[in-house]
């Protein structure tokens, strides 16, 4: 579950850098993203830790931290889910693997109607939906979609 969501978190980093990153570089960029969102969302250190471990946040501030990260990733735009943004990230992450991209897009399609007037709640709902879609397909959450 954790690793699957990391696809969503990290895909942008591939999109931005257009190059494979080492795990260390990814962790650094993830930390940067979360630190940029920490202040605006009022998140606690525990909220940050939970998200770094890719747990669906339970606290309001944790949900807002997630939502802020998703906005920076182009997954949430103006308080709404961007299906195109999400698919673009999946495509970057799985570039060259049409099967993995198709699976990713299938899961995205199941989450296309996720909505909430509260952007923070929306972020948490989206994360939960994507995780459920992966688990339902027997994707080992620790492995993510295999390349
Ligand atoms: C999303 O909503 C549209 C329009 O109501 C509907 O046609 C579609 O089946 C819904 N998708 C899912 C995955 O529920």
UniProtKB/TrEMBL annotation:
Leader sequence segment: 1-19
Record-level Gene Ontology MF annotations: odorant binding
Location in or out of the cell: Secreted
GO term, biological process aspect, one: sensory perception of smell
Claim: Signal is one of the keywords in the record: yes
A GO cellular-component term linked to this record: extracellular space
SUPFAM superfamilies on file: Insect pheromone/odorant-binding proteins
SMART domains recorded: PhBP
UniProt keyword terms in alphabetical order: Secreted, Signal
Protein family membership: Belongs to the PBP/GOBP family.
Name listed for the protein in its UniProt record: Odorant binding protein OBP14
UniProt source species: Sitodiplosis mosellana
């Amino acid at each position: 579950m954790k690793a699957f969501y990391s696809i969503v978190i990290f895909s942008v980093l591939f999109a931005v850098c257009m190059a494979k990153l080492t795990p260390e570089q990814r962790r650094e960029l993830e930390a940067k993203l979360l630190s940029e969102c920490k202040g605006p969302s009022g998140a606690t250190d525990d909220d940050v830790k939970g998200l770094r471990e890719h747990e669906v946040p339970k606290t309001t501030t944790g949900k807002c931290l997630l939502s802020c990260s998703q906005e920076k990733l182009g997954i949430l735009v103006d308080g709404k889910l961007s299906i195109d943004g999400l698919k673009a990230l999946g495509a970057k992450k799985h570039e060259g693997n049409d099967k993995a991209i198709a699976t990713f897009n299938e899961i995205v399609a199941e989450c296309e109607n996720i909505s909430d007037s509260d952007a923070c709640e929306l972020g948490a709902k989206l994360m939960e939906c994507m995780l459920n879609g992966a688990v339902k397909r027997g994707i080992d959450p620790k492995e993510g979609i295999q390349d």
